Amino acid sequence: MADHFLHSFENLVEWLRAHVQAPEHFTLSYAGEHSQFIRFNHAKVRQAGDVQQSSVDLKLIADGRQADLHLTLSGDPEIDRQHLAEALEQLRQTLPLIPPDPYLQLNEQAWDSQHQQQAPLPDSAEVLARIEAGAGDLDLVGIYAAGPICRGFASSHGAFGWHQANSFNFDWSLFHANGQAVKANYAGQDWDPQELDRRLARTREQLDYLGRPLKTLAPGQYRAYFAPAALEDIVGLIGWGGFSAQAIATRNSPLQRLYAGEAGLSPLLSIAEQVSGSISPAFSGEGYPRSDLRLIDQGHAQDQLTSARSAVEFQRPANGAEAWEYPNALSMAAGDLAQADVLRQLGTGLYINNLWYLNYSDQPAARMTGLTRFACFWVENGEIQAPVSTMRFDDSVYSLLGTQLEALTREREMLLSASTYGQRQTGSSHLPGALVKRLTLTL
Amino acid sequence: MFDSTTLLRQRFAALRSGGEFFSLRHVRQSRQQLSVRKNVAEPPSLSRDEGAMLTVRVSGVEAYAATADLSQHGLQQALDRAEALARQIAAQSLLDLRDQPVATARADYLSPGMDSAFPSLADCLDLLNQESASVPADERLVNWQVSLGLSTVEQIYLNSAGAELRRAQRLVFPGFGVTAFDGSDSQTRTLGRDNFGQQGGFEVIQRCGLLGAGKRIADEALQLLLAPNTPSGVRDLLLMPDQMMLQIHESIGHPLELDRILGDERNYAGTSFVKASDFGHLQYGSHLLNVTFDPEIREELASYGHDDDGTPAARQFLIRDGVLVRPLGGALSQFRSGLDGVANSRACNWNRAPIDRMANLNIEPGDKSLEQLIGGIENGILMRTNRSWSIDDARNKFQFGCEWGQLIENGELKGVVKNPNYRGISSNFWRNLSAVGDADTFQVLGTPNCGKGEPNQVVRVGHASPACVFSQIDVFGGDA
């Protein structure tokens, strides 16, 4: 299947190179997947399906103008060449209708990048049997998604990139009869059935804590520990516009005061876009090799995610960011708090495994709100006492990851995106846990 | 229009399956996204997409396969994959659908004005350029963007029981946003964008109010920059329709989705504070609250004749005089729960399976003019245009923020305030509904971005609402 994706892409690139002649130029980015989705409720299969899809984004450039067309591919070489020819013609008719783009910039380098990983994935019958054995008697709900994912890029300047990997992502929750739940995930490229067994067993053990009487907290300020999955929600929200060159320049970034030097974050905090070693492609859909970038270094703003158009408009170097300038391989530096010491150092406060539905109360001030979700516990004197009922927080990033950040854990977790909007995503976050001296709960 | 019909009929008729029932849902869509930012046209983004989902039922177990290979061989392969999967999961299947009825209807549905041409790309770009140029010169106006999204979607549903349902829709999404910055704070004022979309033609752009709006939007962004923060405290809250739609969406729509109540979404979108046993008697809101599922307002985003499983769509009250009467559940959820529902089984595209979604979810108008709504408030605040939304996974504790606030004192509108936020609990909030605006305050709005489901899906939903007043709500501002 993966070879089919690559051959399909190569055929289209070859056809375009023969039919797009100077002064015209093109770029062609490719995305393909053959995915199996198995959805669970009450540890049974609620819905199962198989999705085979591939598409290209064709950009045509001529006379300082550019236009893009997204085209779904059928997989039949003849039909796809015909559709690509029609797309090319549509773009040729479109370009004269639009003005020259003053921010047009192309990468004219003829780079080559290829990564292929074809580790075998388990048969879905085996996965089902394993999940049934590990949690068939529990209230498990979630989704298993697996199969090859491909990304490609080519240009009339001779660039060619191909990234293909088999991967799986099992994302699930176990629910206690009282409605409380614990969430877990097993995702990667090398399937290890014993590792799934271990993770299922670990979540099963946490259910015991959830059976204790629920503690309801009053609004106020509390010490709190954010596990990596909870911290991912915070940095994920910041990521929308936070590091974007366009958002920073147009005053729509939640970190605009950090980038303006008017506010600072904790010296413990360093964040990078760490492409090398991640599961995402080493090239962008715009045709730039993606660089490792220091976004925040010891609390100070550093690089910005800069797409090709932003590079011209704001006179910055393009660094492989996609057009939407969102981190796709975010990595936060570890701290020195041992995971084993988290409860002791938290002392009395909230242990937050997951957050949910974050948004801004005041974006220029980086003040955000959100809720606890999944296995959040009240801790006293370093010992878990009870699960807590859902609580809303409302606090500033400059407080949570600034003045009130006490420690980051030494151990980090690599969290692979379970997002499947449109297609399975290749984003990841590599994060420690964070201990904060004060979290404001409001409701 | 529907020019794939004959070919699809032939290929569907030639499909072979060992299942007792199978269906094909073919979707073809084209999109055009245009944008002008600070008087510079961004590259046009065009899209052509086409594919099909084959669903099969084998001994009461259903599975699906999606493909863009629409050849006879490609469709048969997809059907075979779905059938193999249905057999594979049979032992662990949650559902036995042997007794679930299947659709048999044959009908066509068209958006209003489908037969009239939409302005050309060049004309649309001219319009956006004109509107962008209308933003006045002011160094505090640091960013502005005018946009226009246009989607044409055709769907053909065929099944082995003889159903044939065809739908063609044209959807229009205008947008305008202006950001003002004073060296420290920034404030953005928008029109349309994620708060507006309708079916139809050029008249949608006019109804949105985009034409000639640049000066007003820019002025309002500047007013916000100069305005004080919203004061904290408990006040009466007057929500205009472009915030009501979000309030309806998050704290009525999602909690009434029957698949959430049945637990399907607990790992992702969440559950609901509403229980299956609540329907028929739960006092969801005050007696002024009347909520309908209404697929019959032609221009509203999710008006259609049948849902994606082939169930005929009709207007239904979900909440009548404040009492919860009916969930948002399609045929499958109705079969599972035994509750009556609506035709809201929807998929975002050919590559995702239908699940319970909002479609058009509206609040029925009351009898108060806007002047009467304002006049009835002693100490309150008007808020318009959603900009921030957050609600817990049971859809109960919420906090929402708007772009624009205006204090109300002794029945009169007073000064503008910035960063207006409010928070509450759904199950209490609607019981504080104290006045409902009349038809003159009623607006048909919608959003292209409602996310849910595993695998994830984004669908278009419509919301129409009058302005509404809620008594004694916790209101607060920002830090800046």
What is the mean pLDDT of chain B?
97
Q: Spans of chain B of 5+ residues with little confidence (pLDDT < 50)? A: none
* Largest protein-protein interface: A-B, 91 and 84 residues
Largest sheet of chain A: 11 strands, mixed
The secondary structure category of chain A is alpha+beta
Task: Describe the structure using short key phrases.
A: 443 residues; alpha+beta; PmbA/TldD fold; seven-stranded mixed sheet; 10 helices; B: 480 residues; nine-stranded mixed sheet; five-stranded mixed barrel; Metalloprtase-TldD/E_C (chain A); Metalloprotease TldD/E C-terminal domain-containing protein (chain A); metallopeptidase activity (chain A)
Summarize the structure.
The complex is a heterodimer of chains A (443) and B (480). Chain A is of the alpha+beta class and 443 residues long.
Structure characterization notes:
Chain A: It comes from Pseudomonas putida (Arthrobacter siderocapsulatus). The complex is a heterodimer of chains A (443) and B (480). Chain A has helices at residues 2-19, 77-94, 124-135, 193-210, 228-242, 245-249, 256-259, 308-313, 342-346, 397-403; strands at residues 25-41, 44-62, 65-73, 112-117, 139-155, 160-175, 181-188, 220-226, 271-273, 293-297, 300-301, 329-332, 349-362, 367-380, 383-387, 392-396, 405-416, 428-441. Chain A is an alpha+beta fold. In chain A, strands 8, 9, 10, 11, 12, 13, 14, 15, 16, 17 and 18 form an 11-stranded mixed sheet that branches. In chain A, strands 1, 2, 3, 4, 5, 6 and 7 form a 7-stranded mixed sheet that branches. The model of chain A has no long low-confidence stretch (mean pLDDT 96). Chain B is globular. Chain B has helices at residues 5-14, 72-89, 121-133, 203-208, 214-226, 241-253, 258-261, 331-337, 370-375, 426-429; strands spanning 21-37, 40-41, 45-58, 61-67, 106-110, 141-159, 164-181, 186-192, 198-199, 233-239, 291-293, 316-320, 323-324, 345-346, 355-356, 361-363, 379-391, 397-409, 412-417, 421-425, 433-436, 443-452, 457-465, 468-476. Chain B has 2 domains: 4-226, 2-Layer Sandwich (PmbA/TldD fold); 233-476, no CATH class. Chain B is built from 10 helices and 24 strands. In chain B, strands 1, 2, 3, 4, 5, 6, 7, 8 and 9 form a 9-stranded mixed sheet that branches. In chain B, strands 10-17-18-20-24 form a 5-stranded mixed β-barrel.
